[in-house]
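tool_call: predict_structure(chain=1)
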Amino acid sequence: MRSETRRAIGGSVIGGVRAGPPGRGHGLRRGLDLGGAWTSETQHDAFLPLILATQRTTRLELGTSIAVAFGRSPIVTAHLAWDLAALSQGRFLLGLGTQVKGHIERRYGLTWDAPGPRLRDYITALRAIWDCWQHGTPLNYRGEFYSHTLMTPFFNPGPIAHPRIPVHIQVHPFHSVKYLREVVLPNVEQGLTASDRKRADICLASSAFIVTGRDAADMEAARRSVKSQIGFYASTPNYRVILDCHGWGQVAKDLTRRSVQGDWEGMAALITDEMLDAFAVVATPDEVPGKLRQRYTGLLDRLAVYETFRPEADLTAQRALLAAFPR
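tool_result:
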């Protein structure tokens, strides 16, 4: 993590756009000196809240963490990102993820295959579309999974002032230092070598689970909450490799079985304190900044707290965390 800049620290903003008095429904004007704010795509669309955020902020970087790529055609995502880049005056970051097979096929009703090559093709298609809009290059993209060969003036939004939209494929918040070192980073290095790039040419970003609280009751509540979240993620077969990395593969299978049974409380009970320490930072509020630095320095360039910032909440702890990462 780049400790010299507070812009490396970001927070998640509660999703969804709801009717209410002007200036309410967001936590971006509460004096939090964040480097970025991110929206997720779970119960609400990831892009819509950022439209409001572009009008109420001037410095904050705004991004999706993540928008589901395979739930949309590249042309749909290209339009959304292009408009947000223009509205934010270049502060928008497009964070994409694949989701998993079950959700793409059963929730989105779409096709799932070869997620790695498909996502590469998807992003390459985005770049071709944006190049067409910015420079007038004829659109003639023919990839393995996506083909875009038609762009008439009526559908072309034209050039914008900030056309270089960063595309992030975020490291999932369900990770450990061991998994980052032994699995993620070696694969990143292979990719960099194959594309003739250096580590400094890319930004590695993720979110961190944090267990903290003002007293023992708060800490215990945070433990239960984070264990539940870890259990939910770890029950997904696609993420089993992370538990396998620690020798906890059987626990992953047990979690999957309980998720099928709908035993959500039982899933959380399978997450031991040892697992919690591996996948989350467990510390008092004063200790959190130091533990984040110790864990992520040299591994990640950008870090967000896996926590929703609610405008009505007491944000004292969050302000203290940000203060520990001066510009």
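agent: Residues 283 and 311 are 24 Å apart (CA to CA). Proceeding to next step.
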